[in-house]
Amino acid sequence: MSYCGLNNVKHKDLLDDMVKKEMINRTEEPWGNKTIMKYKVSEKGREILREILEPYEELFPRSETDKSP
């Protein structure tokens, strides 16, 4: 979350819901006296991406100015 600049408190419920629905996986890693939560897209999340985002991209392709370098 800190990598993308998201607020942990504001997005915790959303992330918990996505973990519960198996869209993402959560792992905990010790870091000194703290614990770091890491999130990764699950296979189910990838399948949803393929089913929804890819057809959307085909219908509404990004212009060259919208694409990142």
Describe this structure in words.
Helices cover 43% and strands 23% of the residues. By secondary structure, it is α+β, with helices and mostly antiparallel strands. The protein has one domain. It has a two-stranded antiparallel ribbon with strand order 1-2. A hairpin with a 2-residue loop joins β1 (24-31) and β2 (34-41). The radius of gyration is 16 Å and the shape is elongated. The chain starts with 7 loop residues before the first helix and ends in a 10-residue tail after the last helix.
Task: Estimate the strand proportion.
Answer: 15-25%
Helical residues, percent: 40-55%
Cα Rg: 16 Å
Approximate shape = elongated
Number of domains: 1
Low-pLDDT residue intervals, each spanning 5 or more residues: none
What are the defining features of this structure?
69 residues; alpha+beta; two-stranded antiparallel sheet
List the helices and strands and how they pair.
Layout: H1 8-20, E1 24-31, E2 34-41, H2 43-59
Antiparallel strand pairs: 1-2
Short structural description:
The protein has two helices and two strands; from the N terminus they run αββα.
